[in-house]
Amino acid sequence: MNIIVCVKQVPNTNEVKINKETGTLIREGVESIINPDDKNAIEAALVLKEQVGAKVTLLSMGPPQAKAALKEGLAMGADEAYLLSDRAFGGSDTWATATIIAAAIEKIGNYDVIFCGRQAIDGDTAQVGPEVAEFLGIPQVTYAKDVKLDGEDILVTRYTENADFLIRVKTPCLLTAIKELNDPRFPTVAKIIEVYDEQKDNIQVLTFADIDVDPTQIGLKGSPTNVFRSFVPVKEKHSEFIEGSNENEKAKVLMEKLAALKLI
Q: Which pLDDT value is given to residue 23?
């Protein structure tokens, strides 16, 4: 079995700051990490590796510093890693990003399962994984809460707010992981020493020239959506005390105010 895990490096912060002039995220001084849901995806792949002897390949798109996220994934136990990095990819929205990733997966080839995190904490769109599956023409199951092998098929427990659904899916397929799926392992000391050996270049870089992709479908110009404006919402709180000589009078005043606001 061959498994590909899509990984993204994201800022490690819940307090997003926006450059007011450019409308982009301010990343200076903010630590970068593997997207949390992607770690669950890596762990799911490693569990299957232990069960059936699978090969686990990591794939990420980003600037050269994204190699750090891939190295951490290798230290967790993945077998190889690819980084998609080229200025031609810059400014890609989810559609263009999925186009690039799908093309890279086709180049890598020979895959049975693709794992993605449910969504990235810097964008929260949850679109790239499903879009990759659509571009590759393979079945997908999102919000995977449990994954088990059943012969040549995979049984996936899919989480929803109302109920969990047990879905049987044939390979090749794409699954998106949520935090309830597992507890990601820590890298071992031995793997850390092996992976972070400065004498070894264990990340394979793929550029625009390495994949078969239409240049009109990627990058900022090839993105069907673009950000008009980015900003951090201003949180304002206002309080008002209801006056009245007794509880009934206060309740009446309150009801009148709620009615005026069309809340009741």
A: 59
